[in-house]
Design goal:
By secondary structure, the protein is of the alpha+beta class. The protein is about 50% helix and about 10% strand. It is elongated. It is a multi-pass membrane protein.
Length: about 675
């Protein structure tokens, strides 16, 4: 006897879920439009005010290059050391993983005092120092400085359009010249705003610790707020006889940046280089809460909106197909089947083909069932980490002002979400096997599968960076920290989640499995061809935002449109679910009951296109990337990213497909 009541309940639930998703998308888009009007400011570190004449000093970060993507220590070049010696700043986990190494610098500014000062003159350059300076110049290395948590930036003008870049070059090579010149004179401009109080609530998320500025504190604070930090780099050939008589921080005359090569400081053996700098303080109308706007200025907003509209069109198209499958094809078949008597049903079973004939095989244990449970568990963990991280970032709690916080938050969230991955993986294992035997092995595998692969790739890349003496190489202490987080937090929580999975309510399968597997009819084309091709639809939702993410990672651009990213992530989840359901139904209709892995890779195959797009980005956008170490570094991180996307999207597609198959066959009662 066949009934459709359960199936109709399923249809109503799915329709409700689909409409809810569209409502959430509309709400998020509305929030994106309303967000700029809010006076409650979240991003940034604790506000500092400085009295007139107070000495402040910028810090220096690692030297970076878009040519090599391999960072080096600032003091690996013959720059002037600070008077009290080089002191390392405390760095969080995310900063260390990104290769940041922040040190103090010899540069000193007196607040609201314009001056031009001398730093030092180097010893005659050795052959090794000249070679290193020339190499860093040819590789377009940038010096990165930070003042009051703001990175220094410089401007360049091309065709009447002004472009801003963070950092300034180590040196430069003029056109049609064989000589290299070092940047040895810096003209700093510090923009300040006189503190006036006001009613802006500020939550700190920076390196100085969490805190809220109260009205009482606002009334007692006075002085100058730093709201901008810019530099004009110059190369100036100094009079060594005059410079040798000066001490550090002696006053020198301001200079105009020369354009003539004979007035610039050449990089040559036995040359002595004098370093000087100027600082000018300029009053600005920019308030402290808005000082990051210049760095986080959103460009290409229309492109982001186009990406979202494109994804919505894909969703509507796929939703139409799912609607046809649910409300017309499947329900019509069930209604016809219900109207027949038992004898007619038996005859119809012999004549009809499709999903109704695989009821005795549809829940048969798939090949490599343990690996499937492990990958689904890890995928759920990565998805949860991505969703929570992007939500917090969209709310402003993980801003670029808090260096390394985004990566640190992702790692911490991943560790604690091990309990969810263990629960999901072990519960799926119990459903497939019909019992809890072997759940510990599944839990251990879940906790070690993705982290183990990522850790192995990081170790290989780290050996390459060690060989290059790069600050991007992880220190041994950080390896032990990561291992401690892994085995002291993630593994125990995954085992705990697995234990809870054994105690959860057992998922009752709606159909018994036959002893003898049903033969799958031969097909004209491989079924996996359709599965791999299905990944193009989720990729169409993702690829525009992927371009901006890759640019922020490899081209040093700030990525802060997390509101758009949150919407794209939601749309990606919907597309993955719809694609997997459609392909699962198509395979069942041709009597292919081996749907488990196909449902996983129907959406998980998007990782193939993500990795291919990463290679395309390397070839066409990072054409200047030089050296095998740089290429291996890029491909290694791209591989980890593609694997994470495969596990996440695959888990989404599989779980929705399992839900669909379970409800589909629970609507058919077998006598």
């Amino acid at each position: 006897m066949v009934t459709v009541e359960k199936f109709e309940i399923c249809l109503r639930r799915i329709a409700s879920m689909r409409s809810s998703c569209f409502i959430y998308v509309a709400l998020l888009i509305s929030l994106l439009k309303l967000a700029p009007s809010s006076s409650f400011y979240l991003p940034g570190s604790y506000m500092h005010t400085y009295p007139q004449g107070q000495t402040i000093s910028p810090k220096v970060n690692s030297l970076t290059s878009f040519e090599t993507e391999i960072p080096f220590d600032y003091y690996s070049l013959p720059y002037c050391p600070p008077e009290g010696g080089i002191k390392k700043s405390a760095e969080n986990l995310g900063e260390l993983l990104m290769g940041d190494r922040i040190d103090n610098s010899p540069y000193q500014f007196r607040v609201n005092v314009n001056e031009s000062l001398y730093l030092c003159t180097t010893n005659p350059l050795s052959e090794e120092e000249v070679k290193l300076l020339k190499q860093r110049t040819h590789d377009l290395y940038q010096v990165n400085m930070i003042l009051d948590n703001l990175p220094v930036r410089r401007s360049t003008e091309q065709n009447g359009v002004t472009f801003y870049w963070t950092g300034f070059p180590v040196g430069y090579t003029p056109l049609r010249s064989n000589e290299d010149y070092i940047i040895n004179h810096l003209k700093f401009t510090v923009f300040y705003h006189e503190y006036e109080g006001g009613g802006v609530g500020i939550i700190d998320t920076g390196e100085e610790g969490m805190g809220v500025i109260t009205e009482t504190e606002k009334n007692t604070m006075s002085g100058f707020e730093i709201v901008g930090f810019e530099v004009v780099p110059c190369s100036v050939k100094r009079n060594l006889a005059a410079m040798s008589k000066l001490k550090m921080y002696s006053k020198v005359d301001p200079v105009n940046c020369p354009l003539e090569p004979d007035k610039s400081q050449v990089i040559r053996e036995k040359e002595r280089i004098s370093f000087t700098y100027e600082v000018v303080f300029v009053k600005s109308d920019i308030r402290w809460p808005s000082r990051w706007d210049a760095y986080l200025k959103m460009e290409g907003a229309k492109v982001h909106w186009f990406s979202i509209m494109n994804s919505l069109m894909v969703i509507v198209f796929l939703a139409g197909i799912v609607f046809v499958i649910f409300l017309r094809t499947v329900r019509r078949d069930l209604t016809r089947y219900e109207e027949l008597d038992k004898e007619s049903q038996a005859q119809m079973n012999e004549e009809l083909s499709g999903w109704k004939l695989v009821v005795g095989d549809v829940f048969r244990e798939p090949n490599f069932s343990k690996l499937l449970c492990v990958m689904v568990g890890d995928g759920v963990q990565i998805t949860g980490m991505a969703v929570v991280t992007i939500v917090f970032a969209a709310l402003g709690f993980m801003s670029p002002a808090s260096r390394g916080m985004l990566l640190t938050g992702m790692i911490v969230l991943y560790q604690f979400l091990g309990i969810v991955s263990g629960y999901v993986g072990v519960r799926l294992w119990r459903t497939i096997k019909g019992g809890s035997e072997g759940w510990r092995s599944v839990s251990w595998s879940i906790s070690c599968f993705f982290p183990g692969i990522a850790f192995l790739v990081l170790c290989i890349l780290n050996f390459m960076l060690w060989g290059s003496k790069s600050t991007g190489a992880l220190p041994i202490s950080l390896f032990f920290t990561l291992l401690s987080l892994w085995f002291c937090i993630s593994v125990p929580l995954t085992l705990l989640g697995g234990f809870l999975g054994t105690r959860a309510e057992h998922i009752q399968l709606p159909a018994r499995t036959n002893q003898i597997p049903r033969e799958i009819p031969a097909r004209k084309y491989p079924s996996w061809l359709l599965v791999v091709g299905a990944g193009t639809l989720p990729f169409g939702t993702l690829f525009i935002e992927l371009f901006f993410i890759l640019s922020s990672i490899w081209l040093g651009r700030f990525y802060y449109v997390f509101g758009f990213l949150l919407v794209v992530l939601l749309l990606l989840v919907i597309v993955c679910a719809e694609v997997s359901v459609i392909l699962t139904y198509m395979h069942l209709c041709v009597e292919d009951w081996q749907w488990w892995w196909k449902a996983f890779f129907a959406s998980g195959s998007v990782a193939v296109y993500v990795f291919l797009y990463s290679i395309n980005y390397l070839v066409f956008q990072l054409r200047s990337l030089s050296g095998p170490v740089s290429a291996m570094l890029y491909l290694g991180y791209s591989l980890i990213m593609a694997l994470a996307i495969m596990l996440s999207t695959g888990a989404i597609g599989f779980l929705v497909s399992f839900y669909f198959v379970h409800y589909l066959f629970s609507s058919v009662k077998i006598d």
